[in-house]
What we know:
This protein is mainly α. The chain is built from three helices and no strands. Helix 1 runs antiparallel to helix 2 (56-137) and helix 2 runs antiparallel to helix 3.
Amino acid sequence: MRGIDAAEVYEYLDLLAGQVQATESELRESRAENDRLRTELQRVQAALDEYEQVGDRVNEQVVQLFSQAQLVAEEMVEDVSRDARDRIGQARAHERKVVEEAMDTAGQQVRSYAQTAQAQMKSIMDSFATEVDRLGSTHPATESGSAATHQIDPLFDDLSDWQVRARNGSGPDSPGSD
């Protein structure tokens, strides 16, 4: 099929798949970092529980650190998600463009084929009509060379009506004829 290079489409899809995988990898790394930070915060919290005499000031700092880590992790996840959505949107837009171009190309090919077929059919009909005219105007001669007596043949003598119907598309096989 002309108009779409399948290798190019697959290459582009492979590129997008690689980008999505890279984004997912970044997301996994961000989540792992978030989990590591949470684990670290939990360890710090446990240490703070053991040293409760240090007081509220240390707890406040830990809570603030946890909030900052949580905000950073959420922001990273949001950024990665937004980037993935943007890339998917771009891929969908490109897909729509490729399909639209393919449909246009296919439509042009179908129209071209139909025009060629129509011209060939007209040529065949013209050739057929010419041959019928030639056969209808030729009368066989007798052995002595004189004109033969003409017998009426209903299949061949009334060709003018048949020719008109064939040329106008109203013959026995045309749409709308009974």
